[in-house]
Design brief:
heterodimer; A: alpha+beta; six-stranded mixed beta sheet; five-stranded antiparallel beta sheet; B: mainly alpha; about 0% strand; flat
């Protein structure tokens, strides 16, 4: 579908270095990377905003490297919406109709359909300046979809939104993808998003693609120190969850973890290292999760010390240097790890 | 000293120190105030120099009527030319990076720094003495000693004002609006026309107002190129100059009054349309 071959591009302080990607038809592809990794220029190069310095872009095996954006049929949605402030919501959505020539009847009909799909019908006569972030992003998506693009590029579409709106719009994106089966390439720096939306993902750093694969695979087997650190793959596990009376019991390799997040079936769970208590003897506490294991690894990073304890799974706990010294922890020592069900995050 | 004397002494000290503390504020404010009074007094002095009746008569005289009409026509036309030329130039210098960009920016500002008389002489030499200018004149496009010369002079001297306001306006518009428009089927020019230009509306208004206002008041360069022929190249400032030099005070004051009114209105509109005043 979309094939990027050995693209290099320098634009001020941002750059791409020999980037290759292959995104399949109808795929929801995520690109994950820190700020300044070159994610946006990659999207803009695919959209045709700039010609690449080197390399080619193919759409359905057709070389589109030198085509202007309007001839590519690739849609673009930016983090800060870029709604035209001098136009109403309706005029924004139908901006692209002029070049599509759908006719007097079909055009307005299409606007209505999209406004409906994204739930912005009641906003059609407003101007963008008065709308909330979530509303603006819905309109930006509708505006891009009116072109019936073969590929929709989303540049951190959820990053500027509050967490509730973000969760809602994330579901919406999944629904739109299912409904329209448009190929989506979605750039983000949040791995929750990558996990929840992506069928595959690429990790980018310093203008290069570091790793490509299914999210679970990339999380399980990061192929580089950067990938592992960036993903923060400490304490991410996959397991089978069963909910009983508001508490989820997740079995991971014979280990049972409880969580207050209610989700059943195959799930991922994560526990932040700083939410895990380390003690030399079992703790009497309200925390629902307590495990015993041997200290496997100690990594000293100044004020915070991270210790890896094998409790059947390698669990990483972060403690202060002070308590580390107090307990006199050493490799091979037996310790107890305790954490609350509320700190177990399921996704 | 008894207690009440000491108290009195202390409170006197306090007042004194407060005065000292704010004396800086008072002094600086006084400067501002004096300046403002000076300006207002000057303007009132001009407007009230003759009787209202004499002023009205002068305003209705054929000569002033001619000057008003000529000033309006030339300034509107020169402003339109400024817009037509500055819009693309300002856009290019706001959006694109290319070698020599800084030099180009500086050169485009030169007319701003040049004394208008010098600008006028330069225009006169180019259009009056060179074969280029003579060729144009033979083709019927005469600038020297004609109203066309007034338009030319106004255009040349005021173009940088339009250019600078527009450049900073375009710089303030995120190019991604155009990128999105291009993915929605627009050409580069189409995206500019349908998105950037409407978004630059306020800057365009502010720039037009200031350019027009300065066009109305343009004297030095216009005098050099078009001369000062009564009822021919007599704009309001030229009329003011002509009538002052031959002692027709009421007529001169009529011109001055109109120029004052136009300036005040323009200033008011300009301020309304922009925080763009900062460009200068």
């Amino acid at each position: 579908m979309v094939r990027v071959e050995n693209i290099s591009k320098t634009l001020g302080e941002f750059f791409l270095k020999d980037v290759s990607l292959d995104v399949g038809d109808g795929e929801y592809f995520m690109i994950l990377g820190p700020t300044g990794a070159g994610k946006t220029i990659l999207l803009e190069t695919v959209a045709g905003i700039y010609p690449p310095d080197k390399g080619r872009v193919y759409l359905n095996d057709r070389d589109i490297s030198r085509l202007p954006p309007r001839k590519r049929n690739i849609g673009m949605v930016y983090q800060d919406y870029m709604l035209f402030p001098h136009l109403t919501v309706e005029q924004n959505i139908k901006y692209g109709l002029r070049s599509r020539k759908l006719g007097k009847q079909k055009g307005p009909q299409r606007v209505d359909e999209l406004a409906n799909l994204l739930g912005v019908t009641h906003l059609l006569h407003r101007h963008p300046g008065t709308l909330s972030g979530g509303e603006k992003q819905r309109i930006a998506i509708a505006r891009a979809l009116i072109m019936e693009p073969e590929v929709l590029l989303l540049d951190e579409p959820l990053s500027a939104l509050d967490s509730e709106t973000r969760a809602k719009l994330r579901k919406e994106l999944r629904r739109i993808h299912a409904l329209t089966s448009t190929t989506m390439i979605h750039v983000t720096h949040s791995f929750d998003e990558a996990f929840l939306l992506g069928s595959r993902m690429a990790i980018m750093n310093h203008g290069e693609i570091v790793q490509v694969g299914e999210p679970s695979e990339v999380f399980r087997k990061p192929n580089s120190k950067f990938a592992a650190e960036f993903l923060g793959v400490t304490n991410v596990f996959r397991g089978e969850s069963r909910v009983d009376k508001g508490i989820a019991y997740i079995d991971i390799n014979g280990l049972r973890v409880t969580s207050t997040d209610n989700r059943e079936g195959q799930v991922y769970l994560s526990i932040r290292p700083e939410d895990i208590l380390v003690s030399l003897s079992p703790l009497e506490s309200s925390a629902r999760n307590s495990f015993q294991g041997k200290v496997q690894d100690i990594s000293d990073a100044g004020i915070i010390v991270r210790i890896t304890v094998d409790v059947g799974l390698p669990l990483v706990a972060a403690i202060t240097r002070h308590s580390f010294l107090d307990m006199g922890l050493q490799q091979g020592m037996n310790v107890f790890l305790t954490f609350k069900a509320i700190d177990v995050h399921i996704f | 000293m008894n207690t009440s004397e000491i108290k009195g002494y202390h409170s006197a000290l306090k007042i004194f120190s407060r005065l000292r503390e704010s004396s800086f504020k008072i002094i600086t404010m006084t400067f501002g105030l004096v300046l403002a009074v000076f300006i207002v007094a000057l303007l009132i002095g001009v407007v009230t120099h003759t009787t209202p009746k004499a002023l009205l008569e002068s305003l209705l005289s054929g000569e002033i009527q001619f000057a008003i009409r000529l000033s309006l026509i030339t300034s509107v036309i020169s402003t339109i030319f400024c817009i037509v030329v500055s819009v693309p130039a300002a856009y290019a210098l706001a959006r694109y990076n290319f070698p020599g960009k800084n030099i180009l920016n500086t050169i485009l500002d030169v007319p701003l720094a040049l004394p208008p008389l010098v600008a006028g002489v330069a225009l006169l030499i180019l259009f009056g003495t060179t074969s280029f200018g003579k060729g144009l004149a033979e083709a019927g496009i005469k600038f020297v000693f004609t109203p066309l010369g007034i338009i030319l002079a106004q255009f040349f001297v005021n173009m940088p004002f339009m250019f600078r306001v527009l450049r900073s306006t375009f710089q303030g518009i995120n190019p991604r609006y155009e990128y999105v428009a291009q993915t929605l089927g627009s050409t580069e020019a189409g995206a500019f026309w349908r998105v950037t230009l409407p978004m630059a509306r306020n800057g365009l208004m502010a720039g037009s107002i200031i350019t027009w206002c300065r066009g109305i008041g343009e004297f030095g360069a216009a005098l050099m190129v078009a001369g000062s022929t009564r009822m021919q190249t007599e704009t309001l400032p030229i009329s003011l100059y002509l009538n002052m030099s031959c002692g027709e005070l009421p007529l001169a004051i009529a011109s001055a009054t109109i120029l004052i009114v136009i300036s005040l209105i323009s200033l008011f509109i300009f301020e309304r349309f922009s925080g763009f005043a900062r460009v200068f």
